[in-house]
Amino acid sequence: VKPRTIFSGIQPTGIPHLGNYLGALSNWVKIQNENPQDRVIFSVVGWHALTLPQNPKELVASRRDMLAVLLAIGIDPKRSILFHQDANAMHTELAWILSCITPTGKLRRMTSWKARLAESRNANDESEVDESMLNAGLLTYPVLQAADILLYRATHVPVGEDQRQHLELSRDIADTFNRTFKGSSRMFPLPTALITPSKRILSLKDPSAKMSKSAADPASRILLTDSAAQIAAKVRAAVTDSITTGVTYDPSARPGTSNLLTILAACVDEDVHDVAARCAGMNHGELKAEVASAVEALVTGPRAEFERIRGDVGYLDQVAQEGAAAAYELSAQTMVQKRPLRSM
Ligand code: ADP
Ligand code: NA
């Protein structure tokens, strides 16, 4: 098998919830440990966080917390390059170059942008879209994502279903660059999506929505740092349904109950149908007790590691520094090849 260069990033937006972990981050650890020949690069993408209003002090803390979380769940800086994207200005440099070969029309077709527009629709006139309050970064951040990937000449990018369109854009931009500057530089590889087998975790309070950090009710999500008691309380209060005779996996008719089964199956790494069969004779209370203890068993190690690592500021700084140096070296190789495009 040809060694891969794998890149993925996560924004420094507070402690990850169970959806982030089961849907994305746990897969990073699997990928890291899959094939020692692969070059694996994980980034805390602070530049991206600036598309939303940020309190500088909180952002500094969130960056450090996210680095500590990644170490705590098993990202190993000896096996992976782990670094802060915002410590490397070449991301923004390449993003600028790429933005100048990217038609705005393509960016306006991104569903992420359309969702922003929909949120900003004039309350009095639904047909009137008001862009004036949206910053340009919200339109162009998919180009920054392309730069994140292409800067390391990544061949594979683990993404959720929701990021597939952005990865397509990255391929598109790489292809445009390769055609436009044929001969003047080594070509970018076209990055391939490593689509994570989708484990979409739903809100514990509203199983019609996904578990999200932005939902108003903190009881709708379990954080990786929640205590056993907090986990048990949140699972106990999870919305299920009024069917009292047994447990079945039926996402459309029983979304809350099915979500609990999804969580349980993901925690014990089994097929959800097998888990449903095993739990068929339980009532909701028994299922919830089972789910709470499986979640607790999953997070107890990372939670303790997080507390330990977060207290070790010297270690965190050292990891950040070494990661930055490794990332800088790789990305400088790419940017030197693009030198004809630079003014100096
Ligand atoms: P949030 O929706 O809480 O803002 P992000 O958008 O920052 O989370 O997502 C970070 C990563 O976690 C992405 O790869 C995303 O696909 C994944 N993710 C987020 N929420 C869930 C969820 N409820 N279930 C599964 N994966 C999720
Ligand atoms: Na989000």
From TrEMBL:
A Gene Ontology cellular-component term: mitochondrial matrix
Keyword Lipid metabolism: no
Domain of life of the source: Eukaryota
Any one of the GO BP annotations: mitochondrial tryptophanyl-tRNA aminoacylation
GO MF term set: ATP binding; tryptophan-tRNA ligase activity
UniProt keyword Aminoacyl-tRNA synthetase, yes or no: yes
Principal location class: mitochondrion
Family: Belongs to the class-I aminoacyl-tRNA synthetase family.
Protein name: Tryptophan--tRNA ligase, mitochondrial
Organism: Mycena sanguinolenta
